[in-house]
Structure formats: C-alpha cells, structure tokens
Amino acid sequence: MTDDVLVGTEGRTGRLILNRPRALNALTHAMVLRIEEALTAWRDDPAVEAVVISGAGERGLCAGGDIRAIHEDARNGGTASADFWRDEYRLNALIARYPKPYVALMDGIVMGGGVGVSAHGTVRIVTERSRVAMPETGIGFVPDVGGTYLLALAPGELGTHLALTGTAVGAADALLCGLADHFVPSERLDRLMEDLARTSVHDVLAAHVGQAPGGELAAHRGWIDHCYAAGTVEEIIDRLVASGVPAAKEAATTLTAKSPTALKVTLTSVRRARSLGPLERVLEQEYRVSCAALTSPDLVEGIRAQVIDKDRDPHWSPARLTGVTDEDVARYFTPLAADRELRLPSPDPLQEVPW
Fold first, then answer.
1. Catalytic option among 55, 60, 113, 170
2. What strands lie across the sheet with 60-62, from one edge to the other?
3. E strands along the chain, which residues?
4. Which of 38, 90, 201, 344 makes an SS bond possible with 101, Cβ 3.0 to 4.6 Å?
5. Is residue 14 exposed (0-12), middle (13-18) or buried (19+ Cβ within 10 Å)?
6. Does residue 140 lie within any of the structural domains?
7. Burial 325-338 (b: 16+ CB within 10 A, else e)
8. Is residue 86 part of a domain?
9. Is position 342 within any domain?
10. What share of the chain is helix, strand, coil (3-state, %, to 5)?
11. 49 annotated active-site
C-alpha cells in the first residue's frame, strides 16, 4: 500500500487524507485504488457513519492527476494512463453513489482529479481559500472525472465558460455553479472535523456553515449566457469580442491560447453531457474522449509547455480552430473496442441520498 493516502478512523468518521503535499496531493493510480479500498471496507462497517476527505499541507486538497506520468505514458504510446482513468472514473462513480455521507473539504486548490474525489460527494465544503477549476484545455486535454457532467448542470452557460477557459473560481462561485454545497471558514475546519467524529453531519453543518465572500460570476451572467450559447467555439469567441465587455474580451483572449482541438471537443462533451443521463453515462463518454486524447499531439505538447519545460508556449496541432474538422472532433467520441470500453452499472433510482 502507500502512505500517499492516510487512512484511519476518528470516532464515527472514516478519514482519508491525500498525503503528497509537495506535489499538491496529485493523484496516482495507487492512491485511487487505496481510496476505493477504504470506501469499500467502510461501506458495510457500522462503526463508520460518515467519510471525510481532505488534503495534507497548506496549499489544497488536490491539484489533479499526476500529469508528468501521463506525459511520459503518452509519449511512449503506453496504456498506463488509460488504466489509471478507468479506475479513477470508477472511483468517481463510487463516491457519487456512496451510501454514507461523504464530506469533502475543498480547501485551497481543487483542480481536475481533485474535483473528481470531492465534487461528487454528499457534502462539499469550500473555504475562503478555495480555488476550484477544470483547467484541462490549457494542456490539450478535456475536462474529465465527471467534470463535464457537473459543468453541464451549472446555471445557464456558466459551466461552458468554466470548461472552455479553465477559470478557477472561489467559494461563492463554486456554490453558484453547483460544484460545492457549503462555506466554512478555513479556521473552523479543525473544529468541524472534531465535531464530525462525534456528531451527525446535519448537526455539525448547522453549527459551522457561514456566508461565503462575494463571487464574480453572478454579475457576468448576461454576457456569459449570451456568448457561450453559440453553436461553435468560433462563434463563441466572435460574440465575446463583439460584446464590448472587457471581461468578455479577456475570456476571448484566454480561449485563443488554448488547444483548438481541446476547445472543440470540450464544447461537444459538455453539450452531449446534458442529454446523456446519469453521471455513469457521462463518465463512459469521458473515458472514450480521454483515451483519444492520449493519442493526440496536443496532450503531450500541452504538458510539455505548461509543466515540463514551463515555457508557456505550446505549439498546437492544428494551430487554429479552422483547422479542426468535424471529423477530428467525432474521433474522440468513437466507441472503443468492446474489451476496452468503460462500463459502469446504472444507479439505483430508489437510492436515498445519505445524510
């Protein structure tokens, strides 16, 4: 096993602590399997009435998956990343359907895979330090871990804006977009966890939840909903530029720096997620998309530019949106071979939300 996830119990709670603080608690395959093992053991353990997940260190819950490992795997044409995603997405579904309260402390940085192990939980707590994002388009990838499902459910076109730009949001905006449920000041988290060890989740929340500091997105709903309702990424950018709103023009500039292929695939992913049904069907779609991205030059190039060499100068292929055809996008959604598909059981429609 690995000490990268600390597993234990405190009173009535099972505790999961992601323990790679120097790597911002980035998820490895072994960590995903360890979390799944613990949740499976606690599911039928009457001594564990709730689960709490948090991150070690002061910087955040989790910055995502180990993208250096993904970069190496993609360069070498390996299958390790696909194997990792298969188990990671299974874990996301397990968390979403967990029969006991699953409390996620989304303090600090919560991005990519960090959203996957938190934002599908029963009780999702943000603080004044929270920065929540799905920033995948910046590395030539597409939001996954159920991110397209969550963003598709956000009010209006807020989710489309966040998916395409990769913008990180604070507590109030995470609450507005449905990525979190409650605000608790960071200074109260230790006491919150102590109380959860001996008191019901409902009673603990009543004692600790407060009002989140003001956000930014609500004031921008007008231009966001209008511009991102367009049918294509090209039209979205045209509307942003033509809006006359400085923040919209900044969003357009942000989009032009992202992978053109990733932008088009992301827009299609979010739009399709709205009609696919439960989370499980969206995760299955995301698995196809992720496996296709693994063979795309943009994923290797994006990670190189942002993480490996850090020159922040990716050379996308194709370099422009006009070079990305409908056929290029469709490739990402093509069914895999039968033995490679991710197949998740359908949820029980009668399952009650744990409290």
1. 113
2. 60-62, 109-111, 131-133
3. 5-10, 13-18, 50-55, 60-62, 102-106, 109-111, 123-126, 131-133, 182-183
4. 201
5. buried
6. yes
7. eeeebebbeeeeee
8. yes
9. no
10. 50, 10, 40
11. no
215 is catalytic: no
Query: What amino acid occupies position 214?
Result: G
The DSSP element (H or E) to which 123 belongs, if any, is strand 123-126
Strand, helix or coil for residue 54: strand
Q: Which residue has the tokens 């409908």?
A: 326
Give the model's pLDDT for residue 306.
96
DSSP state of 22: G
Active site residue 65: yes
Q: What is the CATH number of the domain that holds 132?
A: 3.90.226.10
The one-character DSSP state at 179 is S
Q: Which of 136, 157, 284, 298 is catalytic?
A: 136
Contact 49, 27 (CB under 8 A): no
**148-172: per-residue pLDDT in tens?**
999 999 999 999 999 999 999 999 9
Please provide the average confidence, as pLDDT, over all residues in the chain: 96
Domain count for the chain: 1
Q: Cα(82)–Cα(132) distance, rounded to whole angstroms?
A: 24
Distances (CA, A) of 180 to 37, 87, 212, 251: 25, 24, 11, 23
Instruction: Mark whether 113 is an active-site residue.
Output: yes
Question: What angle, rounded to 10 degrees, do the helices at 246-256 and 233-242 form?
Answer: 150
Catalytic residue among 144, 157, 173, 284: 144
In the block, which residue shows the tokens 């020159």?
Answer: 311
At residue 355, the pLDDT reads 67
- CA torsion, ordered 72, 78, 84, 87, to nearest 10 deg: 170
CB-based contacts of 214, cutoff 8 Å, min separation 6: 172
Q: How far apart are CA 340 and CA 74, in angstroms?
A: 17
pLDDT tens digits, one per residue of 106-122: 999 999 999 999 999 99
Query: Which residue range(s) make up the domain with 318?
Result: 5-331
* Among 138, 162, 150, residue whose Cα is nearest residue 67: 138
Please tell me which residue in 65, 114, 146, 159 is annotated as part of the active site. 65
Q: What is the pLDDT of residues 65-122, one digit of tens each?
A: 999 999 999 999 999 999 999 999 999 999 999 999 999 999 999 999 999 999 999 9
